[in-house]
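Hi Y.,

Following your request, here is the sequence exactly as I used it, all 266 residues.
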Amino acid sequence: MGRDKRDLDGFEMERLLHERSLHHAYDESPVPDASLEDLDHGILERVFPTREESDSLRVLRNSRVVAAEAPTRPTIAGLVAFGSQPDAHLPQAVIRAVVYRGSQMDGDVVDEHDLDGPGGQQVDRAVELVGRHMRRGSSKDVGREDRPQFDLGAVMEAVVNAVAHRDYAVVGSRIRLLEFDDRLEIASPGGLPNTLDVESMRYRQYTRNQLLVTFLSKLTTAQGRRYIEERGEGVERIVQRSTELSGREPEFHQDGHELRLTIWGA
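Below is the corresponding structure, written out as tokens. Let me know if you'd prefer a different format.
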């Protein structure tokens, strides 16, 4: 029986009932112990500039950076995108990054970090870490650049997808980024919805955290590129760019309540 015909499991039913009880999506929920002081107001001012300080709370409420029903409490999406340290209140809002020597997890650990901070900063740090540790193939042809092991544009798309679409209701799990000698693995907590599977996700759009996706589409990297530029095309870009470099298509696997992406190195 295909995934589109299976019954909702426990995690999905709990999430659905929670969203129905609140009449809005989960990422619009207020974070109980967080406050306005947990937001990075420098980032907010770049995204939502205001002329008067008195206007700022109204703008934050209207944009749903803070919850309408609790205007001093950031929403989950607001804290992940704009929080100085989101994991202080959302321990799951961190990327666990580990670099291994060899192709198995029993190899020596070369580097490991918990990548925290605002969502965009987590993405930047993840891409920087992959770029720092990946191999660069040498070329004997004069004037030709060395070929990198991974397409960092595709890596960025993959990490952004993980941050944007992971299930933040799964409290005990973090995004995991594992770099091996031959591949990169990115594991994102939260299964696919019952209307989607790994074969169709390349061609069909699905957004678990619509508000967070909206915020990430407004944020830009240091190079001026938006973290999310064209909705619905990220998976296709990951596949195309990675395949062009390595000659091998990335692989998506649904493993219980986790979606895992493997990008093969060149």
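The chain has two domains: 9-84, 95-264.

Thanks again,
Q.
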